[in-house]
Amino acid sequence: MSLLPRIVGHRGAPQMAPENTLASFRAAAAAGATAVEFDVALTFDARPVVIHDTSLERTTDGTGLLAENTLEAISGLDAGGWFDPSFAGEVVPTLEEVIDLLETLELGADIELKPDPGREVETAKIALGVAQECWPTGKQPPVITSFSRVALAAAKEAAPQWPRGLCFDLLPDDWSEAIGSLDASMACPNADRLTGDQAATLIAAGLEVMAWTVNDVDQASKLLQWGVSSLCTDVPQQLRTAFAKGDLV
Which CATH class, in words, describes the domain spanning 7-245? Predict the structure, then answer.
């Protein structure tokens, strides 16, 4: 069984609903996605919440840094009105709330650790401690991904039974050593920077490959021909339609 399906909703379905919110994950499921990617970071009081940026301004009506605000403060922010007034009142969800919804929607997950500098180990330990307590028994485990090798090393210690994936923009020269030391089973490259030869090398090394962020059907087709196993996309509805029409196989 593959670690993730072919289509993974990037922060849910962020062209249909505000990213990394419960509404976005519902939209992804409604669009036919069977797994979603989302970002986890810690509040000031070390509670794992689902948000991408280190600062609050882009996706909430708050200001300042996530790491300088408590969960209580974060929970009072509007994380939907910026996208469209119809989503006003959406909140920054906790990791527990997202996992509960994933179970209801029968969605798989790529949990990306987004630690602040210096909090890599803390983020991995706390977030994965919570995730393991909440994760439904018998459900396929999530893939734990990050650009931070320190966070992934901590994830290996905190949840050794859950698969890990290393994210990168450009394929690092020492990718093989890094993958080996992290005991990772997935590579997560920038789709725009990946080459066919690199994809072939990663796959030959026994890795599954999830490319991000794939929003074009022609690019998706090329990546699948290269052997890329999963496409992380802002438009799961469009790629799902392309699969249904036979434009992607």
Answer: alpha beta
